[in-house]
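Before relying on records like the one below, remember that each one covers exactly one chain. Contacts with other chains, cofactors or solvent are not represented anywhere in the record.
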Amino acid sequence: MHSLGKYLPSIFTIQPDDINAVVEIYGATDVERIDVHRFYNPTLGGHFFTADILEKESVDENSSFNPEGVGFEALSRLDTGVSGSVPVYRFFNPKLGSHFFTAFEAEKDHVLELDDFVFEGVGYRAFDTDSTSTVPVHRFFNTNSGGHFFTASEIEKVAVSDNANLRYEGEAFYAFLDIGM
């Protein structure tokens, strides 16, 4: 046992003293993280993601969606000066009633040419490379609904990989894991 305390295997999140120690060593950051909220629509079998607080509150009031909390944390669409950050573009497919997100410019340009999608702009910003402060956000294609599912949880990624209706498409981008998870 360490003289300052004992090891607690039940603690899985970063503790305030850990955060304070990192800030002491490396300094504070002015990068503001925003929550990307995740909802599930059991009728359609699809997920909805939003970083917009007004949209989140509107969806909270919609009984068609079950709130699932914060899926991950990203940067505001306005944080264009954060080194290494990229826009994550959002499209709406009125035929499916679902949204599609991509951080890939070539994919964005391709989807812009499709008639089935309405471009809604930048949903939020993330990163195109991994770092010590980010985690991969995995993207799956739902072969039943035609929608996409995103997760920043490695445990959830493994669990849904067994679902024959979800085809893994790889790492979509990198974001911050919600430390409250």
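The longest strand covers residues 66-75.
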